[in-house]
Amino acid sequence: GLAIHPHTGALWANEHGPQGGDEVNLVMPGKNYGWPLVSLGREYNGNPVSESWDLPGVERPLVFWSPSIGISGMAFYTGRRFGSWTGDLLVGGLAGRSLQRVMLVDTASFGREALLTDLRVRIRDVRQGPDEFLYVVTDEDAGELLRLEPNDEPGEDNPQPQATLLDGTVQTRLHV
């Protein structure tokens, strides 16, 4: 997946690695991102893809997953509906059956969390709508389009977002 950073205009890309080594990179002209000379993944026989995780002249990923989440679509959240999420990167996981929230400061990750794990579905893509809700497409035989929205029920100390099918029925509550 590709995403344009909303404030810098920089291109970010993710790469799907074998058995680990899924990564997110800040794409810059003339830079080398290493494949297959440098990888954090493993071949399917268990051997490392590469002998080194670090070589001179090769950029390190900003974020990586091992084991692999089966990285898919990604988007930056720029809205205000999920206040603390503004500026964060959201990444789909096919094998990981989750939506990954990557908390960022500039180009540095300072935390991650897996969302939608209770659904146990492959997440193909995520996008922010003009209404500032998040929309997630699942990759199943009966794939679905979900709208993520804050749960504004009164009396809750820590309101949790909820996923809603586009027919309006609540699918699940996220534990964020």
Task: Write out key terms for the chains shown.
single chain, 176 residues, four-stranded antiparallel sheet
Describe this protein's structure.
There is one protein chain. The chain is an all-beta fold and 176 residues long. It is 0% helix and 39% strand. It is built from no helices and 13 strands. A hairpin with a 6-residue loop joins strand 2 and strand 3 (22-27). Residues 154-159 have low confidence and may be disordered.
SSE order and pairing:
Layout: E1 2-4, E2 11-15, E3 22-27, E4 63-65, E5 71-76, E6 89-93, E7 98-105, E8 108-115, E9 123-128, E10 134-138, E11 145-149, E12 162-165, E13 170-173
Antiparallel strand pairs: 1-2, 2-3, 3-4, 5-6, 6-7, 7-8, 9-10, 10-11, 11-12, 12-13
Helix/strand-derived category reads: mainly beta
Q: Sheet with the most strands?
A: 5 strands, antiparallel
Overall 3D shape: globular
How do the strands of the widest beta sheet line up side by side?
9-10-11-12-13
Low-confidence stretches: 154-159
Summarize the helix and strand pattern as letters. EEEEEEEEEEEEE
Give the CA-CA distance, first to last residue: 24 Å
**Over the alpha carbons, how many angstroms does the gyration radius reach?**
17 Å
Mean pLDDT score, rounded? 85
- The amount of helix comes to under 10%
Number of helices: 0
What's the quaternary structure here? single chain
Count of beta strands: 13
Instruction: Report strand %.
Output: 35-45%
